[in-house]
Amino acid sequence: MARPFRQQIDEGILDRAAALFARRGFAKTSVQDVADAVGLSKAGLLHHYPSKDALHEAVLAQAETLGERVLEQVEHLPLGAGRDRRAVEVLVDVALAHPGVVALLLAPATQDEPGAEGSLTDGAGAMALAAFGVDPETTDPERCVRVVGALGALAVLTLAARQADLTLAWRPYVVGTCFDALGHRRPRATPSHPSQTEA
Q1: What's the rounded Cα separation, in Å, for the pair 83 and 77?
Q2: Which of the two residues, 35 and 197, has the higher pLDDT score?
Q3: CB 42, CB 31: distance < 8 Å
């Protein structure tokens, strides 16, 4: 029984650290900042993670583990609308449960920092693309843009839902919006303009 509790504590620490790294950057985030955010003393945090580098590595490993879990849940499905729908649902649930990791993965796209760490084609980002069967080197550019757009919308909307404390209320709309971004029409979805056609 002690292991799941420890895992929850570690996941909470890593998610808060990820959020701070996303907001302030690795260099400007101190161990004390993370300790304060999770309600531990600096010594207590260092008991879990012996250095800021170790903490950062653990955050990146958690992001990759989450990406692997998503991919495992959809890779057996054939490419198409059904797999896309399932991938969106799984990713939304992961994003709602781990907002700090989502913020960290979104940070390279939103920060104007040359050489910023992270890329959609590395680690967890690459696994998110793979969940939709996308390889940026070989996949049709329109499909790449749609998937990247859906992932961007998913990240922004899940973070906004968490901030507004509306995760349950917004979940179906986030899933629907991302599914629409992929070019699929949901049943009973109406075009926003009479001239709009399905891609």
Answers
A1: 6
A2: 35
A3: yes
